[in-house]
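step 4 of 6: structure.
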Amino acid sequence: MLNNHEKVKIILEALPYIQKFSGKIIVIKYGGSVMEDEELSKEVFRDIVLLKFVGMMPIVVHGGGKEITHLMKKLGIPSKFVSGHRITDKETLDIVEMILAGKINKRVVAGINAQGGLAIGLSGKDANLIKAEKLVLNESLDLGYVGDIKSINIKLLESLLYEGYIPVISSIGIDEKGQGYNINADIVAGKVAQMLKAEKLIYLTDTEGVMDRDKGIISHLSINEAKRLIDEGDIVGGMLPKVTSGVDALQGGVKKVHIINGTFAHSILLEIFTEEGIGTEIVKS
Amino acid sequence: MLNNHEKVKIILEALPYIQKFSGKIIVIKYGGSVMEDEELSKEVFRDIVLLKFVGMMPIVVHGGGKEITHLMKKLGIPSKFVSGHRITDKETLDIVEMILAGKINKRVVAGINAQGGLAIGLSGKDANLIKAEKLVLNESLDLGYVGDIKSINIKLLESLLYEGYIPVISSIGIDEKGQGYNINADIVAGKVAQMLKAEKLIYLTDTEGVMDRDKGIISHLSINEAKRLIDEGDIVGGMLPKVTSGVDALQGGVKKVHIINGTFAHSILLEIFTEEGIGTEIVKS
Amino acid sequence: MLNNHEKVKIILEALPYIQKFSGKIIVIKYGGSVMEDEELSKEVFRDIVLLKFVGMMPIVVHGGGKEITHLMKKLGIPSKFVSGHRITDKETLDIVEMILAGKINKRVVAGINAQGGLAIGLSGKDANLIKAEKLVLNESLDLGYVGDIKSINIKLLESLLYEGYIPVISSIGIDEKGQGYNINADIVAGKVAQMLKAEKLIYLTDTEGVMDRDKGIISHLSINEAKRLIDEGDIVGGMLPKVTSGVDALQGGVKKVHIINGTFAHSILLEIFTEEGIGTEIVKS
Amino acid sequence: MLNNHEKVKIILEALPYIQKFSGKIIVIKYGGSVMEDEELSKEVFRDIVLLKFVGMMPIVVHGGGKEITHLMKKLGIPSKFVSGHRITDKETLDIVEMILAGKINKRVVAGINAQGGLAIGLSGKDANLIKAEKLVLNESLDLGYVGDIKSINIKLLESLLYEGYIPVISSIGIDEKGQGYNINADIVAGKVAQMLKAEKLIYLTDTEGVMDRDKGIISHLSINEAKRLIDEGDIVGGMLPKVTSGVDALQGGVKKVHIINGTFAHSILLEIFTEEGIGTEIVKS
Amino acid sequence: MLNNHEKVKIILEALPYIQKFSGKIIVIKYGGSVMEDEELSKEVFRDIVLLKFVGMMPIVVHGGGKEITHLMKKLGIPSKFVSGHRITDKETLDIVEMILAGKINKRVVAGINAQGGLAIGLSGKDANLIKAEKLVLNESLDLGYVGDIKSINIKLLESLLYEGYIPVISSIGIDEKGQGYNINADIVAGKVAQMLKAEKLIYLTDTEGVMDRDKGIISHLSINEAKRLIDEGDIVGGMLPKVTSGVDALQGGVKKVHIINGTFAHSILLEIFTEEGIGTEIVKS
Amino acid sequence: MLNNHEKVKIILEALPYIQKFSGKIIVIKYGGSVMEDEELSKEVFRDIVLLKFVGMMPIVVHGGGKEITHLMKKLGIPSKFVSGHRITDKETLDIVEMILAGKINKRVVAGINAQGGLAIGLSGKDANLIKAEKLVLNESLDLGYVGDIKSINIKLLESLLYEGYIPVISSIGIDEKGQGYNINADIVAGKVAQMLKAEKLIYLTDTEGVMDRDKGIISHLSINEAKRLIDEGDIVGGMLPKVTSGVDALQGGVKKVHIINGTFAHSILLEIFTEEGIGTEIVKS
């Protein structure tokens, strides 16, 4: 047990990091198992509120695949996936939106507010935050209402950040006719970070980071190395959209991308407040 | 058929009403059968966007009882009501939030945006918009997570209105621990109008307005007359929270309350742009 | 006779036009016979106030040739014109200013205010709004105090528009010594529109628009066609400064120029609120 | 002849007065013979521009009785006066407005601008600056369009002052129907000073100030003394509205009222930049 | 040694305190032995910069008695004190100002800046920050240029705080003739805290806090208890102006006053970031 | 003796100069014998306050060589100079700062405030106003803490000017570790003027200006002529940093540089308010 004096000295050790990231935008993709663990989520929300109160500007983007699948099963609707995309018909889209914008988004908002922050939940429909169009992978395959991002309404996000709110974004898109789209949350997080030229884009995942072929964590990746790994097929599954979006974000002006283990309490703080960091970081060069 | 010249003369007839309500806040409770009619809803959204573009500041509050009951039935959960309140356990509250904040709210937002407006959907959880506590009607009855409004974050609403957005509010409340509550949307609409000292509070219903004992529409009510009707038991069912909240709103500074037939296209515009108006209006004296 | 329901549907038809021109600057040259018709002028003022209240930013520029000539005759001073310019000696300039800035300008301002707008009358002398120098057509001809525009104080106009006023401008110029100049109002309107990059520049005239050789109205002109008509001498008299200034304005950033019949009630609204429009429109290409 | 060193020492003597009146509003009623003297007027304009540039906020109010009478005579219309008020029919009102708002106002504006200031001329019609109603002295006498001030739009004046302009006001009023009124300029100056809580209200006249019965100048008057002089009939003619309006202005918050000889060059500066001052000053007590 | 994970958990423990004092003004009187210890001072500056970066608004007030005496001795001038006040003639005042505003103030400013803050040093002369007059204890005693505070220019402090600077104030006063005064820094700190309605006023001293007669630390005092201790003569010497000014500050709106041991590293942080706190706290009741 | 009327005419003669320099930044290097003359300094402060009140934005930069040498002698420390630079060890730097920031700076601030201005004293340490590094003339010579300017925090100066303060700057620099540096005040004045693109940079000296070889004053110098004089060794001693910094300032955007005799009362005003000016002016070409 530390005495108070030892404790404040440790708090002081955080000062250089607080100064370095003061006023900077940190986009956090919240997803994976951490979402299912109420206690762990509470810790994540507390981490986010801490970032806010020491002067950073966190933005949360979330997905919610498992809960969508769960409700669909309850309602007797089968979930179908093609190359990682959920085939999304009208009925499915309704369920996606209800789970994302109605359940998870508000759970995150309430969780952050309970820690003393002031979060505002946004679906991509709100103020046309995420303008999208139908994603067409190839002519012969119809994914239904799966969307491809066309633009982000950064004016709204900047004004909410400026007024002190923590935006919490559901990965839903909208087209000019008001049609909704289901979008991969990793891609939304990357695009939001890129458009706001965020300091950091942090993906909370269920693994320790990007693995090499021997299942060792790669702690540092340049854009070129990341691209090579993608080309050589070493990055697959749910890691693929994270790395791809991360690379795009870096090329668009984001300083650093982190893929870290969200199932480990305070991994966000470890990444931001220590020199070593954790997981995999991707940087420009 | 009118020629163009006759048409612009009719547009000009709207000028006195546009001038009268320029810059004024109009709170619209959107609910009832109109919500189930896609075409009719589209007209309502168009009416709201018109109000915005001719200089008024519309705010939409919505409920969604029928769709909640529908999804509960699908999921095999029975709906129980006591004195008009839905008994709301944890599972029910999840469904309420999914339908309200996830489905209906985003449908309204997308509908308004498709007409050229810029709506932002808000649950009472967002930025603690609707602070609430557990509603206790009497000691022996536990309604579950049914909420009583403690305060409204008008700073958020004012700043969104000022930046040109149309707020769309789901009737969900939150307490300081982040716990959600299911609240009657009529009451939310009344409280929002009251706290913002709105010019008008309009309830869209399935009937022509408040009826007298002979089923004739009462076109005009003073606060005192409304109170007397309530006391004498002439106002019952879904009309009761509307009239009660309307009276509270008037006493809190709202200019006029209207209870009109939302199943009739453009009833909002008829109320605002014509001398006669429609339905029942309640005024201070 | 239409019922109220039919009327609000017609008002709704204006929505796309209101949205399209929201926040846009519309410069209106008010002149010709319409100025002499009190009832017709009242309708024009009402049209202008409607534009303002539905979100546009109208600016009025006016001339006043006939009333100047009328007062000169009363005072026993002959009016002399050379190539459309009034020979303006000191005494004439006094009369020009009295009629324009003292009589017509204030009549327009009062007329707009009576319709519920808030107009501010400006001569080009006010805050050096229209900086001018002596117009020299050729060495051997002295037009007196007829001016050529050097610059427009757009800062003043923008700040008045921003605060919600409707500027009403008399076509008087000023040089750095405070000397006044009589300037063609069509040219002033064109220059004001150009400097503010107005959406529309509308000339209210006594004819249906630009005519072809067979006295048919030309409903659409490109800049090149307009220039050709001028070169071939098909545009003459009072139409010449309108078309010339209109072409300059378009080349300077104005979207569309309209030459319409002001003697027909609500011609402004017809131009703005209907697809067909009226009169002649000139566009970039 | 002074050398430069002696000159800058004299400039420095003005510093205490510049500091004292920095940021203060000075309302100057410009009228009488000074208006007819071009050279003298130029000096007045220079004085006003100096006040502006050393940090004060001058506002000019002007009348123009003699030039109105002059033009009326030229047009063959007789001038009729009752108790100092010009009987003002429709035709006379037109002439009043043309002379005031069209000729004199713009002459003052141009004169100030030529000295390097930036003046904006305003009639009471502009932005409803001077709201008025028909003045009724007694039932049996109809003065025509002679007005009584109901209110002043101080928001407009404050915003123009704040942006660095010198407002120049013609004594014309307007009612809610847009009807114009001829108002005594002394009364307008007093009311403007009063509503803006001006530091000083200066009347430029053709005499040395208020005279006692022996034709000696009274250099200092309290409100009570001024009222007594009025009651005893010692203040008459054109001096009456000045003293009466001055007393009203003082009671409404103006610090000091000065009645000085405007036919003497730089009398404004003498009043402001010297300890002795000139003419008559009226103070609260 | 703690691992990173344990460290971030300790940082998180600071969150409730960061939230509680976010945006609050903390006035710190820096003085006593801590000033002479370069390493300790560095820690104090780091503490202050931490407070700033986690959202609080620290203001530093400093004295410098020992260094003044030291320089006076070097220059061969004897230091004389009467009831704790340094007799301050013209020569002494020069030395006081040189040490306070020239040496210590700039040392503090540079020290804070070196830690990454942005401090601005202010003497009470700057922008007339501390208006003072000659302090007269009794008629027969002339303390020389020892001052009594008349007012604080809080507009300047608020604007510097708002722009993100850390004000560092030397305890010098000024009268309207520009004459400087030597003022007790404890009193300056109290008055600054009071006028800004600071959240906390912290006195860094060389002792553990206010002692009772048995030399035990009194950890908590109400205003009434503090007054009683003063009246009974239990608070003497350098502790007297601290407790007296602290009581005044509390009565003027400051939330809490702390008298803590500045010779112990991070005592400021211990006071702010732990529940127990250290030293003596004085509160309203 | 002039009468009041003659006096105000002389004040009016200043108008063109007041207009010309309204809103412009004037940097004044205050130094030399004038600093030792209390009465003369008072006149300089009055001049500066006059400039401020008639709309200019004066900034004062001061040195203080003689008083530093004087205190060092009193403390028994010898002053050593190499090529015009004072060898500055730790002890010397303390004395430099005490004299500059503690004594002279506050004397100037108090002097300006006593004349009705509102000055704020700044050392280069405040808000890192003057970032500096060690000046290295050549490898073999160590000047100690003599600094070379790296950058000026113009944001701070602009915000103070905007809020109406008169900045008074001591020629002290700071590096990122908080180490102070002694910098030549002429160079500081030149750099401040350059970074703010001042209208004028005025050096108050003990001579009439730059002299030619026959000891005649050179009243006008182009940059090229000034460079030639430097190259040919005709500008030496204390005049060298003034002319060199002046040339740099002109090349960086300053309009005019003046080297004038500060021992002559009101030389600043003579330079600004008369056509002839005094001393030497250096201009771009």
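step 5 of 6: annotate
 - Chain F has one domain: 23-283.
 - Chain F has a mean pLDDT of 95.
step 6 of 6: archive
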